UniProtKB/TrEMBL annotation:
Domain named Transposase IS200-like: residues: 9-124
Recorded superkingdom: Bacteria
Lineage: Bacteria, Pseudomonadati, Pseudomonadota, Gammaproteobacteria, Pseudomonadales
Protein name (database record): Transposase
InterPro entries assigned: Transposase_17
Transmembrane segments: none
Pfam families found in the cross-reference section: Y1_Tnp
Species, as recorded: Stutzerimonas zhaodongensis
Position of the signal peptide: none
Length: 231
């Protein structure tokens, strides 16, 4: 059975996850994280991708990007993945694959879900029990989005920019979103959409994406279609 093509639309945010093969470690030392971010910045610029949020975990990566060309996110992940594997194999004297096949992704409805998805990404270290607060984790975009820590990688989305008229106001409003954990239902919804290559948004968003792409963009009903008798 052929693989389902990814859902990608110009200008629509995309949540990406790339995992280590068999969940193996992808980042061993601080230098590994720094190298990955360096090349992420380089290839995002070269492919025309705008990075809104990220979290580098020990065995997987979360990115939230948007681009004006539908092919740009795929080009970014291909160039970045290949370059980092070369570095990792050379550094740790290994060979073979590092990543688990294709990256997984979902289109994100900006108006209702972009900030939810950013919180999901930046709260990953907290859910993993690595830190108690996202500000304590060095390898995510939280400090940039919430505290104004300089990061040339991050290009805020217009939804984020609407949080306030000044950077200070936006940072304060963004921090306020983290006073409470994400509801388990939202976490599950994001995971299902990303792992299944579906649209993350309300019914109207899903219908619009399905119409533009000419394919189903939400989960189908479990089981076989019900048969009906004629006559």
């Amino acid at each position: 059975m052929p693989r389902r093509s990814r859902l990608v639309l110009p200008g629509v945010p995309l949540h990406l996850i790339q995992r280590g093969n068999n969940r193996q470690i992808c980042f061993v030392a601080d230098e590994d994280f720094a190298v990955y971010l360096h090349w992420l910045h380089q290839y995002a610029d070269e492919t025309g991708c705008r990075l809104h949020a990220y979290a580098l975990m020990t065995n997987h990566v979360h990115l939230l990007v948007s681009a004006d060309r539908a092919q740009a996110p795929g080009a970014l992940m291909k160039a970045l993945g290949q370059r980092y594997v070369q570095y990792f194999n050379r550094t740790y004297r290994r060979s073979g694959t590092l990543w688990e096949g294709r990256y997984r992704s979902c289109l994100v409805q900006a108006a209702d879900y972009l900030l939810v998805c950013q919180r999901y990404i930046e709260l990953n270290p907290v859910r993993a029990g690595m830190v108690e607060h996202p500000a304590e984790y060095r390898w995510s975009s939280y400090r940039s989005n919430a505290q104004g820590e300089g990061c040339a990688l991050i290009e805020p989305h217009e939804v984020y920019l609407a949080l306030g008229t000044t950077p200070t106001d936006r940072h304060a409003s963004y921090r306020e979103l983290f006073r409470y954990e994400l509801e388990p239902g939202l976490v599950d919804e994001i995971r299902r959409a990303t792992n299944g290559n579906f649209a993350l948004g309300n019914a109207r968003f899903s219908e619009e994406v399905a119409s533009l792409l000419g394919r189903r963009v939400t989960r189908g009903q479990a089981g076989r279609p019900r048969m009906t008798r004629e006559g």
